[in-house]
Amino acid sequence: MNKRLLWKLCGTIAVGSVALFWAINVLSLLTEHEMSFIAKEHQETLISYGKHAEQLYLSNDMDALERWLTTIQEQEQTWAAVVSSHIEPLANSIIPSQYIERFSLGRSVEWKIHLYFKENPVMDITFESGNTHFLIRLPQRMRPGAYWKGADIILQVALPLGLLIILSIILYHHVMSPLKQLERATRKFSEGNFDVRVRSCLGARNDELTALADTFDRMAERTGKLIITQRQLIADLSHELRTPLARIELVIDSAERKNTAKEAISRIRKESIGMRKLVEDMLTLAWLENENPLLNEETLDLVDLIDSITEDAHFEFPHHNLTCQLPEHAEISQSNHRSIGQAIENIVRNALRFTPQGGQVKISLEAKDKHFYLTVQDEGPGVPEQHLSDIFTPFFRVNKSRNKTPEGFGLGLALTLRHIKAVGGSVTAKNLEGSGLEISILIPRGQM
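The line above is the sequence of histidine kinase; the predicted C-alpha cells follow.
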C-alpha cells in the first residue's frame, strides 16, 4: 500500500523537531551572548569613574579621593577602592612582559559577564602607570542580562510552542485539505450531483489521501451510473407497460360490449406473456447493471450451443435461410452457457426478424488467439450509422430505419451486451455494403 503520507508526516515531524531544537539552542546562545556585555553607557560611566579616581590620585589629595570613593559607594550601593599592585618575582622567577601588561585585579569593562553567577564581578580600571587600579564591584543597575529570565522563558517555552502550533497547522491543512474536498464532493453527490469528482482537485499530490479520492471517484462514477440507469429503466419500464395495459383495457371494454370473451382472453394472454417477458428481461438487466457479475464458472462448447440455437430458429423461422460456418469444436472455459446462449439467441432472432422471407442469415465462428470470433450477418435494412452504438441501449429502437415494427421492447441487444461483458467479452455492430447488419461477438476462450 502507498504510505507516502506516513513517510511525509514522519519526515516533516522529524526534520521539524531537529530544526526546532537547533534553532532554540542557537538563539539561546546568541541571546545569552548579546546580553552578557555591559551596556556602552555603563562602560563609559565606569571608565569615567576610573579617570576621576586617577586624577584625584595623581593630585595627591587622598582626603578628596576618600570622600569621592565614599560618595560613589553610597550612590551605586556597592564598594569601590583604589589599590596599588606591585608584582615581585621571587626565587629568581621570570615573569613575561606580556603577563605584566595584561595583569588585572578585576575584569575589564569590555569583558563578558556570566549571567549565571549570583555575585557581581569586580571591575578594574587600570591607571596609566599600570600598577594602580580603580576597583569597583559592578553596581546592580549596570549588570547585564536583566531580561535574560524572560528571554529564556520565551526561547524555551513560547518559541517551541509557537513553532509547534505552526507545524501542526501546516500538517492539519495538508491532511484536511483533501478531506474537505472529499466532504464537499460527498455532500454534492448526496444532493444528486453524480458528476462530482475529487481527484482532479488534488493536483499532482500522490499519497494515501489521493488513493482515497481515486476510490471515491470510482465509487461515484459507478454509483451515479447505476442510479441514472435505474431511473431510466424505471421510466422506460413504466412507459412500456402503459401500452399493453391500455390494450388489455381496450380488449376488456370491447369484450364487454361485443360479448367476445374467447377472443378477449386470447388477446389478454398474449399481452400478459409480453409483459411477463418484459419484466423478466428488466429484472435480468437490472441484475447485470447493479451487480456487475463476472460469470466465469462453467466450461462449454460454443458449437453445441450454436447448434441448439439454430435448431430452434429453423423451427420458428421456416421461411428463412440460416447458414453456419462452424468448426468441429469450440470449447471455452471460465464462462457461462446461459449468458452466452441468451446473447447469441437474441442476436440470431433479431437477424431473422429483420431479414425478409427467403433471405439469408449467416453465422460464422472462428478462433483468433485467445478468443473466439462470432459474427451474425442479416439481409435487413441495416441501422443508420449514428445509431450503431445506440442499439445496445435499453428500450432503444430504430423501427423507422429498419422499416418494420418488430415484436419486443428494445431490450434484446442491451441484454446481449451485458451478458457478453459478464463473461469478459465484447460486442460490436456495423453495416454491410448494400444492406444488412453484422454483429460481432468476441468471446474469451479462458484458461484451457
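Note on the example: Confidence is low (pLDDT under 50) at residues 400-406. The chain has eleven helices and ten strands.
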